[in-house]
Design brief:
Low-confidence stretches: none
Shape: globular
Strand content: 5-15%
Bound molecules: D-xylulose, cobalt (II) ion
Distance between the termini: 45 Å
Helix content: 40-55%
Mean pLDDT: 98
Radius of gyration: 24 Å
Largest sheet: 8 strands, parallel
Oligomer: single chain
């Protein structure tokens, strides 16, 4: 059954196009900085929002109109049909990757054994569709937060049986990710955090969290899973304090438990802003620590304190994010995954396509502008000038660790007059950035 039959495959028509079903900036094969746009951007569809998002919010029920969901009633048949729809949808858009949680693709059954059996049946269908289309799995993951057994967390639950269940579930999720040739596997700490220290043994929870990750590393070796492991930081929601708060917290946590060599970060825009950081801050921090892995491309609403997971349409943000990605040498195993959902009132199937087109165009435009900034070395030349005092003289001695406090005191006593400070020129750089954006 074809659900998007009436819609032609989405094509690039340029920035003057008024066709809502055309790309204005994304021209997949166009080469920028020696690489095609599609290889820079590596767009991915998030199965959970796009196929299973229903529009439910705390005040109201489902709003999404999905003809395929209405066409079958059996849950397992519905799950199989959704796979077909997912691949048809990605084909129309030319999206070459997807990501999923185990529970997005197959409904949970009464026992883990039965759930795993159904999961395998759905994975069979996914495997066929992947072969047919050439679409690849960017990363897989396990949903360790939806079921009520995870009410107090998964690997950080005070209940050891829940830890065990989470491990068993993750084992299977890793196996299916491997089977589908997944380039990565994400750990987002769903409910790994706490509400109040009055009832929380923080030390044990953090130790167990690290223990769980180590077990996953061990199991990956055992089964020969070569995909990249990622941690996805988020500061809050669903718990008040999530342990994987932000890039800095995750990096130091991984180092503390000697796990840093096995993980990179999957950085999400809306999570960055919830942590009161910019996305480019989070990306730069990961990059300078050799841990920039993948991106969940979305955006939040800066007036709201929760994870709205909107499709990215903010050009300024996409330019700065793409700049960091280019600066870090581009993606290897990672990509741009639209962890984004259409608004509750954008309930038609067309909205689903239009939202993805908008997100793809926003990042494509971001890539075009960031590539020019990078080529013209606007920011890099400025950096070089701003930090040039470390190239020679005392600065060089400082960065090559040749001097101590006594030497520096002597330097100051002999020199007497300091070199003058130079202005930071923030407004000038922001104005130049605007020129690059507006053309
Ligand atoms: C939740 C979130 C997750 C992860 C995967 O905020 O971003 O969907 O991306 O578990
Ligand atoms: Co995410």
């Amino acid at each position: 059954m074809k659900f998007f039959e009436k819609i032609e495959p989405v094509k690039y028509e340029g920035s003057k196009s008024t066709n809502p079903f055309a790309f204005k900036y994304y021209n997949p094969e166009e080469v920028i900085l020696g690489k095609s746009m599609k290889d820079h951007l590596k767009f991915s569809m998030a199965y959970w929002h796009t196929l299973t998002g229903s529009g439910v919010d705390p005040f109201g029920s489902e709003t999404m109109e999905r003809s395929w969901d209405d066409s079958v009633s059996d849950d397992i048949e519905k799950a199989k049909l959704r796979v077909k729809v997912a691949f048809e949808f990605m084909e129309k858009l030319g999206i070459e990757y997807f990501c999923f949680h185990d529970r997005d693709i197959a409904p949970e059954q009464d026992t883990l054994e039965e759930t795993n059996k159904v999961l395998d049946e759905i994975v069979d269908v996914i495997e066929v569709e992947m072969k047919r289309t050439g679409i690849k799995l960017l990363w897989g993951t396990a949903n360790l937060f939806g079921n009520k057994r995870f009410v107090n967390g998964a690997s950080t639950s005070p209940n050891a049986d829940v830890f065990a269940f989470a491990a068993a579930q993750t084992k299977k999720a890793m196996e299916i990710t491997k089977r589908l040739g997944g380039a990565g596997y994400v750990f987002w700490g769903g409910r790994e955090g706490y509400e109040t220290l009055l009832n929380t043994d923080m030390k044990l929870e953090l130790d167990n969290f690290a223990r769980f990750l180590q077990l996953a590393v061990n199991y990956a070796k055992e089964i020969g899973f070569k995909g990249q492991f990622y941690i996805e930081p988020k500061p809050k929601e669903p718990t008040k304090h999530q342990y994987d708060f932000d890039s800095a917290t995750v990096i130091s946590f991984l180092r503390q438990y000697n796990l840093d060599q096995y993980f990179k970060l999957n950085i999400e825009t809306n999570h960055a802003t919830l942590a009161t950081h910019t996305m480019n801050h989070e990306l730069r921090l990961a990059a300078i620590n050799g841990m920039l892995g993948s991106v969940d491309a979305n955006q939040g609403d800066l007036l709201l304190g929760w994870d709205t997971d909107q499709f990215p349409t903010d050009i300024y943000g996409s330019v700065l994010a793409m700049y960091e990605i280019i600066r870090a040498g581009g993606f290897t195993t990672g990509g741009l995954n639209f962890d984004a959902k259409v608004r509750r009132s954008s309930f038609t199937e067309e909205d689903l396509l239009i939202a993805h087109i908008a997100g793809m165009d926003t990042y494509a435009a971001g890539l075009r502008i960031a590539a020019r900034l990078w080529e013209d070395k606007i920011l890099e030349n400025n950096l070089e000038k701003r930090y040039r005092s470390y190239e020679t003289g005392i600065g060089k001695k400082i960065v090559s660790n040749e001097v101590g406090f006594k030497d520096l005191e002597e330097y100051v006593f002999t020199k007497k007059e300091m070199e003058p400070n130079e202005p930071g020129r923030q407004e000038l750089l922001e104005a130049i950035l605007n020129q690059y954006i507006l053309g």
